[in-house]
């Protein structure tokens, strides 16, 4: 082998070696995260947000984090107990994690209250009203928090429109509501404005405890509104077995907000944002904070577009005819 061949061989080898080295160093999945794993303490309101937690994990994995190696997620679930939620929030702050995540309005509010002095970084998700968290500027939230907002309250008029398109004969809509809901007044206002525009009368059925459900449903069956809507509330969402069988027997069409379980729970229609997707969206913000960005300088984001699901099989069983234009609007139809 002459000298030119040797030089050429060495040159080719160096080029290939350099390319391989660049690939392994530049490809995110091979980036080595130095130091101990980051601890993320997560507070939810109830089992309702478990799909959001799974979304956070999935989102972090897509960003090349290895769960339990790069990040440790410590889940706190008060199972709908508001007093326990506040206690868990205080315990989380005392543990001084690298980052706190609140997945619901009540969970995030509890963390904000407990975090007043510690000022630990906080990312919220699945929050219905950012103003209730003390944020006035979504582009520059300030302080130590930012996150993802879901407008479950503001879309109430849209849910009414969908019910109205089911049948023009719908003149009254019953709404199941917890008077202790953190957005209680906003729900009354948004729903009232939507009903007024559509010429619909609202009938409120307040449920402050699980024991109230049977009484509220008995009253609802007696008054028999033309349709029923739920509100985003753990107490109502966690007890569909006490609600949907009664609506089915009474042949009252219903609209829920919970994409993950609403149809399976027995509601006729669902209009809302996937909590799993909210979790994934929150993960992208979590990533920024873990990499050193100031939460207060990260703009608050709004969740993706709501989707409509319809249980046509249930409609057929109840003798309810769903117009073809409404079926065509649906993102998913269960037949």
UniProtKB/TrEMBL annotation:
Supply the alphabetized keyword list: Membrane, Transmembrane, Transmembrane helix
Going by the entry's taxonomy, the superkingdom of the source organism is recorded as Bacteria
Q: Which residues cross the membrane?
A: 6-25
Transmembrane helix in keyword set: yes
Q: What is this protein called?
A: ABC transporter substrate-binding protein
- Source species of the chain: Candidatus Giovannonibacteria bacterium RIFCSPLOWO2_01_FULL_45_34
């Amino acid at each position: 082998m002459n000298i030119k061949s040797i030089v050429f061989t060495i040159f080719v080898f160096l080029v290939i070696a350099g390319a391989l080295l660049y690939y392994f160093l530049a490809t995110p999945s091979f980036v080595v995260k130095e130091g101990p794993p980051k601890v993320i303490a997560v507070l939810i309101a109830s089992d309702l947000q478990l799909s959001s937690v799974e979304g956070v994990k999935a989102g972090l994995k897509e960003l090349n984090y290895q769960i339990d190696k790069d990040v440790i997620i410590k889940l706190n679930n008060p199972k709908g107990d508001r007093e326990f939620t506040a206690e868990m929030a205080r315990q989380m702050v005392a543990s001084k994690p690298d980052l706190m995540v609140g997945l619901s309005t009540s969970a995030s509010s509890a963390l904000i209250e407990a975090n007043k002095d510690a000022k630990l970084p906080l990312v919220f998700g699945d929050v219905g009203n950012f103003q209730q968290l003390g944020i006035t500027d979504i582009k520059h939230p300030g302080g130590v928090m930012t996150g993802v907002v879901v407008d479950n309250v503001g879309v109430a008029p849209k849910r009414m429109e969908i019910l109205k398109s089911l049948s023009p004969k719908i003149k009254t809509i019953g709404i199941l509501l917890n008077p202790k809901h953190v957005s209680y007044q906003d729900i009354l206002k948004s729903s009232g404005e939507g009903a007024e525009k559509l010429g619909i009368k609202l009938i409120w059925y307040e449920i402050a405890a699980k024991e109230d459900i049977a009484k509220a449903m008995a009253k609802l069956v007696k008054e028999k509104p033309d349709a029923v809507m739920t509100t985003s509330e753990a107490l109502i969402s966690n007890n569909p077995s006490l609600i949907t069988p009664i609506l089915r027997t009474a042949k009252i069409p219903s609209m829920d907000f919970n994409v993950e379980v609403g149809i399976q729970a027995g509601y006729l229609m669902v209009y809302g944002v996937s909590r799993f997707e909210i979790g994934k969206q929150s993960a992208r913000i979590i990533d920024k904070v873990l990499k050193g960005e100031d939460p207060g300088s990260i703009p608050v984001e709004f969740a993706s577009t709501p989707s409509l699901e319809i249980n046509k099989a249930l409609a057929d069983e109840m003798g309810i005819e769903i117009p073809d234009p409404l079926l065509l609007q649906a993102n998913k139809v269960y037949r």
